[in-house]
Each structure stands twice: as C-alpha cells, then as structure tokens.
Amino acid sequence: MEAVVEADDVRKTYGETIALSGASLSVESGEVFGLIGPNGAGKTTLVRALTGTTDPDDGTVRVLGESPTTVDRHRLGVLPQAFSPPDRLSARELLAYYAGLYDEARDPDAVLADVGLADAGDTWYENLSGGQKRRVCVGATLINDPDVCFLDEPTTGIDPAGRRTIWELIEDLAAGGTTVVLTTHDMAEAERLADRVGLLADGSLVAQGTPGALVREHGGSSRLTVETSADPSALEDLAFPVDACDGALVVRDVDPAEIGAVVDVLDDRGVAYTGLTWAEPDLEDVYLALADDAERARTDRIGTAAGLAKAGETA
Ligand SMILES: Nc1ncnc2c1ncn2[C@@H]1O[C@H](COP(=O)(O)OP(=O)(O)OP(=O)(O)O)[C@@H](O)[C@H]1O
Predict the structure, then answer these.
(1) E strand or H helix at 278, and its extent?
(2) Which residue among 43, 46, 54, 155 has the greatest number of ligand 1 atoms within 8 angstroms of its CB, and so is best to mutate?
(3) 153 near 81, Cβ under 8 Å?
(4) In this structure, which of 26, 83, 266, 275 has its CB flanked by the most CB atoms within 10 Å?
(5) 153 CA: nearest ligand 1 atom
(6) Which parts of the sequence belong to the ABC transporter domain (predicted)?
(7) pLDDT per residue over 30-88, tens digit each?
C-alpha cells in the first residue's frame, strides 16, 4: 500500500517548550488514522506540520508524496481545532463561499445534509449552536471532496446524535477511499473509526497499531467492579488481584464464567454491594496505561536533569 501521509522524526519547539520530540507515522491510502494523547502532547502541532501550517525544526513530512507546502491543496481537507469563519454568513452561504475557492466542489446543500444541518442552511453562523458550528466547519472541510482529510477534534462540542452523524460521514469517506487523519480525546470515537491509532505522549508516538492490537498489548486485564464501601482486605485471599478505586473494589482477571464464584465469596463474607459491572479492557485502558508511563518517564527525566544541574552547581 502507498503511504499518503508520512512524518519522519519530526521535531518542533516553541521557545522552551518541546511540542514534538521526534514524531513518526505513516498512513496508507484509504486508512483512517486516529491520533490520541493527553492535552499538550503535540497532536495539533503534528497535524499543523503535516498540513504545512507550521514548519518543523527537523524531520520530514510528506503528503501525497510531496511537501505539504507544494502539494495540490485541492486534494486536501483540513479542519483545524480552532476555525472561525465569518459570523454573518448563513451556513449555506459559508459552504458556497468555501466551494467557490475550488475549481470543482460539492453542492453546499448536499454537504449540509451530510453533516445533519439540512434545516439550518439559512441560519447565520453566529446564531448556530456550538455543535452546529462545528458541523458546518466539518462541512467546509469536505466541500472540495478531498482525497486526504485532516480533522483536528472533529466532534468536540457536538451532541451524541450529531457525533454519530459525523462518525457515519467519516465512515462513508473511508469507504469511498479517502485517507483520514483525525485527532480525538474520545476513545469510543477512535476505537470505532480508526483502522490504526497512534498514541502521542510528550511529543512522540509511543504506540501505534489497530485498536484491537493495542488493547491486547497494553489494555491489561478484565475488571469486575463491585460497588461497595468494604475494604480490599474483605477479599484479600481471593484468587484474583483486588484494588480499591473510587468507592468500589476492582477485581481483575475474572472470566465471565468466574463471576458467580466471586459473588458467592461476597455473599459468604457478608460484603454488602450496590452494583456489579464486568468490563473487558478497551482503548481507554490503553490510553491511561501508556499516558501514565509517559508521564512517569517525563517526570524521571526532569528529576534527573534537575539532579545533574544541582550536582554541576555544587561541583
Ligand atoms: N504556537 C505556539 N506557541 C507556543 N507554544 C505552543 C504553540 N502551539 C503549541 N504550543 C505548545 O506545544 C505543546 C503541544 O501543543 P499541541 O497543541 O500540539 O498539543 P495537543 O496534543 O494538540 O493538545 P490538546 O489535546 O490540548 O489540543 C503544548 O505545550 C503547547 O502549549
């Protein structure tokens, strides 16, 4: 398969801040790639480097085999995280305006229908709700029927039904062969849409893979959550690891067939509980585990650097 979006060892600093510390990824034609990671991890900076709106200090970026600054912009769709179109145009006028920037563009009304705003075409942008505004912005990104789409947090602020509309739209784009790079804080969104997910932490991609592979590798074990005020010692000699967490006991590694045995132990020991939930690990567990590891590594690095500086001062 042909790589359509590539970043190789991309570095970017803003003053003292290291936004990207060697980020590399490769997205194939027709793939949906989801970038996840904590606030400040560098997702937007990477998207900006890939779309030519910021110059990396080092490393290379290629889109459709070219530099983002020379690639045919008609083939790209870019939804920035912050997008402020003119306020006093209606949703339809706005899309018509963006359509006018291209030699060939889609019908604004068809795009409005795609983003679930068929009834809001005459409303001024400033009078749309936050979620409706975001949907218009998604529409503006798709007006030129791009081959490659960069969507920086496309569904932020959109209600659950609207989010599903956008998800279906992205699935249709992917089914039609469009390559999509999206950033998100919504793990359900990443798990549903992305063929592959990359976790960016502290400026570099610390893990990449299909959601399933990431969950198998980093997601940990299943969890049986027992809503109870009891202390973990109530279950201390159980055959499974038990942790206390937010007013509950979390019993790990329990197969569905073993839940009954745990319930019997709870009843035998008179442990009162108000609810039981069993869950397999998911992408959120991967995110929490890897982001935690990256944060620990960062803190260690800062501690080591501070120690070395202090040693230098006293030497
Ligand atoms: N134009 C800029 N000037 C100075 N610092 C910047 C600039 N853009 C980004 N940064 C810094 O670079 C780091 C990475 O920011 P970036 O916006 O790429 O993160 P992000 O992963 O997209 O975060 P979020 O999830 O909050 O959107 C942050 O520390 C941020 O403060």
Answers:
(1) strand 275-279
(2) 43
(3) yes
(4) 266
(5) 27
(6) 5-227
(7) 999 999 999 999 999 999 999 999 999 999 999 999 999 999 999 999 999 888 888 89
Q: Tell me the CA–centroid distance for residue 45 and ligand 1, in Å.
A: 6
3-state secondary structure of 268: helix
Please list the residues that pair with 36 across neighbouring strands. Answer: 199
Mean pLDDT of 208-226: 93
Helix (H, G, I), strand (E, B) or coil at 85: coil
Task: Give the per-residue pLDDT at 234.
Answer: 86
Rounded to the nearest 5 degrees, what angle is found at the Cα of 164, between the Cα atoms of 26 and 150? 30
DSSP conformational letter for 120: G
Tokens 């035998």 belong to residue: 268
| CATH tag, 221-279 | 3.30.70
- Helix and strand numbers (H, E) in the chain are 9, 13
CA distance 166 to 159: 10
Question: What are the tens digits of pLDDT across the range 89-98?
Answer: 999 999 999 9
Measured CA to CA, the distance from residue 202 to residue 284 in angstroms comes to 18
Amino acid at 234: A
User: Domain 3-217 - what CATH class?
Assistant: alpha beta
Pick the atom of ligand 1 nearest to 48's CA: 18
Would you kindly state where each structural domain of the chain is located, as residue ranges? 3-217, 221-279
Q: How far is the CA of 171 from the centre of ligand 1 (A)?
A: 28
Atom of ligand 1 lying closest to residue 12 CA: 12
Structural Rg of the chain based on CA atoms: 24
Interatomic CA distance for residues 119 and 134, integer angstroms = 15
CB atoms within 10 A of CB 264: 10
Q: Residue 210 carries which side chain, given as an amino acid letter?
A: T
**Residue 274 exposed, middle or buried by CB count within 10 Å (0-12, 13-18, 19+):** exposed
